[in-house]
Design brief:
Number of strands: 9
Radius of gyration: 19 Å
Largest sheet: 7 strands, parallel
Number of domains: 1
Bound molecules: coproporphyrinogen III
Helix content: 40-55%
Structural class: alpha/beta
Number of helices: 17
Order of helices and strands: HHHHEHEEHHHEHHHEHHEHEHEHEH
């Protein structure tokens, strides 16, 4: 097994800098499109054999050093009782919203092996195939809450912040429920064989630090604390989170995810003795080869004092990225970091 990724997470010496890319299994790959052409996104998420196939695609095609379970952060919200659909071009849409006590009471805390058995089955099947470590994941409670409250994606998050500021007890009640469900869900993933776990906090960056500290952070800490017993590296990624780095460093995560809006050297100085993951701008994959090479070299140099560095994009790979450019980046990271 190639354990370079796990070693970097633990701050151990590695022969080269491992790389994987957030959203590495997805629409930019024609091989994914082909599988997806026959099923809806949700059907895909619930078919373990197909999930295994698309999880493996970027490993085989692009030589990534870690695999991430193919699923979605909102699968758990659906299992909690929120009917979910994905609309072409519009993203996730929930049939109902959670904005009052009655709708909160309707949400359940599911048994992960029953309600999301297909996820655990995917993990077990993947473990038989993989020669690189498998990352399991969930959405962080605040990010999941925004989708339930808004009923889907949002740009302004009016309903989320309205609920937070005008009905804080209800808001905390929702966060507690998502937290409990997420703990059980990630523990089940660890038991099924996930070798690292990542919490995606895609929308943490819309909060003022004081509101993050009050409404989001305690739940992140609670989840990460509940996973310590499994002895798998824990990764916390707060997107747009340069103002929240000190929190991320103290969250209980072994690895702090970084978007591209901060220089990795500055971030390392602030997170201290933690491994970091990131942080090239996903659109920088469009650079011509010589410029991409310079950019990667600079990032590797800037990250040399980190306790551990896992090369990654600062957010998910964009769906129109040419796969050849992603492959070029992987090869360059391997080549330049093994010198
Ligand atoms: O990283 C991987 O390769 C594993 C799979 C994965 C998906 N979603 C597959 C997906 C992971 C880790 C996610 C996480 C996720 N999902 C996040 C957090 C990361 C981030 O991007 O900030 C969020 C916020 C979601 C919610 C979600 N899922 C949205 C908003 C959308 C629609 C927007 C979009 O990119 O299409 C999805 C759909 C989705 N999740 C797709 C994939 C491959 C595209 C579905 C398709 O095939 O049409």
């Amino acid at each position: 097994m190639n354990d370079t990724f796990l070693r970097a997470c633990r701050g151990e010496k590695t022969d080269y800098t491992p790389i994987w890319m957030m959203r590495q299994a997805g629409r930019y790959l024609p091989e994914y499109q082909k599988v997806r052409g026959n099923v809806t996104f949700l059907e895909l998420c619930k078919s373990p054999e197909l999930c295994v196939e698309v999880t493996l695609q970027p490993i085989d095609l692009l030589n990534m050093d870690a695999a991430i379970l193919f699923s979605d952060i909102l699968i758990l919200m659906e299992a909690m009782g929120a009917p979910l659909d994905f609309h072409e071009g519009k993203g996730p849409v929930f049939a109902t919203t959670v904005r009052d006590q009655a709708s909160l009471d309707k949400l359940i805390i599911p048994d992960p092996d029953e309600a999301t058995g297909f996820v655990m089955e995917t993990i077990k099947l993947l473990k038989k195939e993989l020669k690189v470590p498998l990352i399991g994941f969930a959405g962080a409670p605040f990010t999941c809450a925004t989708y339930l409250i808004e009923g889907g994606s949002s740009k302004v998050f009016w309903e989320t912040k309205k609920l937070m500021f005008t009905q804080p007890e209800l808001f905390h009640g929702l966060m507690e429920k998502i937290t409990e469900a997420t703990i059980l869900y990630l523990q089940a993933q660890a038991r099924a064989g996930a070798q690292a776990l990542q919490l995606f906090d895609s929308w943490a960056g819309i909060l003022a630090p004081c509101d993050y500290e009050e409404f989001a952070y305690p739940y992140v800490r609670k989840i990460l604390a509940s996973l310590k017993q499994y002895d798998v590296p824990l990764i916390y990624f707060a997107n747009n989170g340069a103002t929240l780095l000190e929190y991320s460093a103290e969250s209980g995560a072994d690895v702090v995810g970084l978007d591209w809006r901060i220089n990795i050297k500055d971030a390392i100085a602030r997170v201290g003795n933690k491994a970091v993951q990131g942080n090239i701008d996903p659109f920088a994959l469009l650079l011509p080869e010589d410029k991409l090479k310079n950019r990667i070299q600079r990032l590797l140099d800037d990250a040399k004092d980190a306790r551990g560095h896992i090369f990654n994009l600062g957010h998910g790979i964009h769906q129109f990225t040419p796969p050849a450019q992603a492959k070029l980046a992987v090869d360059l990271v391997h080549e330049l970091s093994s010198k």
